[in-house]
């Protein structure tokens, strides 16, 4: 099961959050699709996804996207995706 807690943050406050769940095993080739669905539900632009983001998520169970990861301007400091599946 894929379970990701997405947090949109300004300074250190969560201004929006969303829990993404999917009844399938984590397949990192589908990570961009998960990210797109998360950002759609949060009503924010989708950041640029590079290998480093996927490696950080796989190794540390979370990844941070800062303003510089977005092509469009955003009104928040960062988007944090955290694995809450426990696996």
Describe the structure.
This protein has a four-stranded antiparallel β-sheet. The model has no long low-confidence stretch (mean pLDDT 95). 25% of the residues lie in helices and 34% in strands. The longest helix is centred in the middle third of the chain and has 12 residues, at 31-42. It has one domain (2-83). By secondary structure, it is α+β, with helices and mostly antiparallel strands. It is globular and about 35 Å long. A hairpin with a 2-residue loop joins strand 1 (2-10) and strand 2.
Question: How would you summarize what this structure contains?
Answer:
This protein is an alpha+beta fold and 87 residues long. It has helices spanning 31-42, 51-60; strands at residues 2-10, 13-22, 62-66, 78-83. The protein has one domain.
Could you name the key traits of this structure?
87 residues, alpha+beta, 25% helix
Write the layout of secondary structure elements.
Layout: E1 2-10, E2 13-22, H1 31-42, H2 51-60, E3 62-66, E4 78-83
Antiparallel strand pairs: 1-2, 1-4, 3-4
Q: Please mark out the parts with pLDDT under 50 across 5 or more consecutive residues, or reply none.
A: none
Could you give a short account of the major beta sheet? 4 strands, antiparallel
Arithmetic mean of pLDDT: 95
* Principal-axis shape: globular
- How much of the sequence lies in strands comes to 25-35%
Span between termini: 9 Å
Spatial strand sequence of the major β-sheet: 2-1-4-3
N to C succession of SSEs = EEHHEE
Helical content band: 25-40%
The helix count comes to 2
């Amino acid at each position: 099961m894929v379970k990701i807690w997405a947090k949109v943050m300004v300074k250190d406050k969560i201004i929006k959050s969303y829990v993404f769940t999917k009844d399938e095993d984590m397949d990192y080739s589908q990570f961009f699709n998960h990210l797109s669905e998360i950002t759609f539900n949060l009503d924010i632009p989708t950041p640029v996804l590079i290998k480093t983001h996927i490696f950080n998520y796989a190794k540390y169970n979370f990844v941070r996207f800062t303003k510089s990861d977005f092509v469009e301007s955003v009104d928040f400091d960062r988007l944090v995706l955290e694995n809450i599946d426990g696996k």
